[in-house]
Fold:
Amino acid sequence: MEKVTVRSFLDMKRKGRKIVMITAYDYPTAKIVDEAGVDGILVGDSVGMVLLGYDSTLKVTMEDMLHHVKAVSRANPRALVVADMPFMSYEPSNRDALENAAKFIRAGAEAVKLEGGVEIVDRVEALVKAGIPVMGHIGLNPQRIYTIGGYRYRGRTEDEAARLVEDALALEEAGAFSIVIELVYAEVAREITRRLNIPTIGIGAGPYCDGQIIVYHDIMGLTPYKLSFVKRYVELYDVMKNAVSSYVSEVREGIFPGEGFYKSMDKDVLKRFMERIEGKDG
Ligand code: KIV
Structure:
């Protein structure tokens, strides 16, 4: 199977083939999702809440992200690897955006994702000009949670919906190769998707987008909270907790490590060993 590139994303939209993306933050997960056949892996700043215990993505740093981008890219996936630019790594200036995006590319990412619409077109243009592919991200932008006023669906009113269309068109015009649409009313996502030549990747944005993205830990049932737009394909939290509980009780009861889980010495070596240490003790 051929390596997925940003061009493949555009081809998939042209051919009407759904694009499948998922998050991964580490080497084994990148291997699993790649072998399962996803087209794109996002090393999302959701890592902050999902793995690092932060209460929002605003606390995620470049150092946090680079650590995880390197781990994912070591898996050498066939899927396109996209690095999420964390809060304040691109907002201050084009120079910040370029320097930080370059760090991700050197760490193994093949594209970067930036949250925002019309207000970040300068950054997108600068990155694309420098040869760094950019994925946009509109709708709910968790890095702007304080101005949005909470994790709520976007595009409820016609004004808000029309602004989202403007954002999407501006990002396409600036050179983005695709756009994530998060937590947006389905019809708004549909109209954006119809108007763009680049693919839209939805999360909580309904079925009309060109592709879907989801947080791996959410569909695996590894997060304690349940989100309305997430289908949990397995309840791994319980499966994993039960496995650890079994380990705990087997160690306490002397069942593990039982026969087959340890090695015994050769009898003659054991005899000489015992003679030596008992001789020493005596
Ligand atoms: O950080 C992330 O995982 C994301 C997805 C939810 C799109 O931005």
Remarks:
- The pocket of 3-methyl-2-oxobutanoic acid is lined by residues 23, 42, 44-46, 84, 180, 182, 203, 213, 215 (CB under 6 Å).
- The chain has a mean pLDDT of 97.
- The chain has two domains: 6-234, 239-281.
